[in-house]
Design a protein that fits this description.
495 residues, alpha/beta, Amidase signature (AS) enzymes, 11-stranded mixed sheet, 39% helix, binds glutamine
Amino acid sequence: MEKLTDLNTQAAVAMLRKGEITSMELTQASLDQIERVEPVIHAFITLTAEQALIQAAAADIQLQTARKNGTNPVASMLGIPIVVKDVLCLKGVRCTCGSRILDNFIAPYTASAVQKLLDAGVVVLGKTNTDEFAMGSSTENSGYGSSHNPWNVNHVPGGSSGGSAAAVSARYTSLGLGTDTGGSIRQPASFCGLTGLKVTYGRISRYGLVAYGSSLDTVGALARNAGDIALAFNLMAGYDPLDATSSRQPVDEINLGLPFELKGLKIGIPKEYFITGVQEEVNQAVRTAIALLESMGARIHEVSLPHTAEALPVYYLIAPAEASANLARFDGVRFGPRATDDNMAAMYKKTRGTGFGTEVKRRIMLGTYALSAGYYDAYYGQAQKVRTLIKRDFEAAFESVDLIAAPVAPSTAFRFGEHINDPLAMYLEDVFTLPANLAGIPGLTFPVGFDQNKLPIGIQLMGAPFSEGLLLKTCHAYQQITNFHLQKPTLADHP
Ligand code: GLN
């Protein structure tokens, strides 16, 4: 039999329903795998093993009862172990956001997205590592040390949701939650050989997600195939009265079991995404995947997104501006550890000075500057205008094509230390992922090859708002006839 930790979510759901395995066995297999592999991967900030076993035992009772009464819904995730990025609150569990400033902060409530999965019966194994406040592309900005890429531990897993990506790739579990503000689900999914969905802004509630860039933040999932993502998406998506920016648009349940033909699907190739400076193997693999989609019936068109080059400066004004406001609340009074000093102002300064890491401080300063009187119009105001142009580029493109295909990142997973002392080089990592966040549209990453060092290469498909179903169906069709998504790092078996 396949190892329990190798099962994807849908396969595990089916076996749990039939009583062929128990949630306890599945959860214990995950915990064993974590014990073996975690010393070299470091995917977690907080492991919740004890609680997980309690949740698994409860799930088993429910599964048993449901089996007797024939009531277990096919699409539930009852008894499935998952991991949760440590920027999403889980009541009673430490939530650090990868920052020392929240080192001892216990979440008083649960994020809506997580709650919906808990209501469906998932088991939470723990909270995964992230760049501090989700600012970064490698987990090197975490206040708790970096996570390592299971395909090669000398390379980063990507970020900021690198902990969840590493955990799913190292076969701790089949599904992880992440967040994507500028690429933080898609890029680590790509670096770790996974499928990762960034949803339309507002499609999944942000309630209980510690805010980074409020107008850009989205919650989503990383898994090993489109089907598992669809399962989680169906459970998490939808209007939430607790999040004023959550969309009231009804959710179309995604059913990948229905027949779907790529024939006639129009895929646009934006020339601005196929530029010099991209690793040749990445370019090649993405082009080969596009050719395969074409041979399956899709029609390929060149499109133009003229303001693509502006996305990077626009994002690095808007995101820090929003972050500087969002992070003002961490002052040692309301959350986390408090430094002691003679007076209040000195206490604030010391708490923030010692609690925040370098990158977070850099962004607070950038953002405060961009928002300050006299500079607001020149920087923040201007950036908002260009953001609208970026959004319009996509609107225009989606008049002639259904989806847009592009690379996820300029390179495969880079080595530790390669970009960490050069913030601009690190920011360049995000050049292909930021536009979707600025436009609020969904994007899906999935594996389409490996480079010569056997590091995974991903492709990114982007779609019009609320086209998550089309994205996942297209990916599912591709995964039916390819096996890149089935490869696993050797470390998962021999740490
Ligand atoms: N890497 C980008 C940044 O550093 C995106 C992060 C994210 O999506 N959370 O801001």
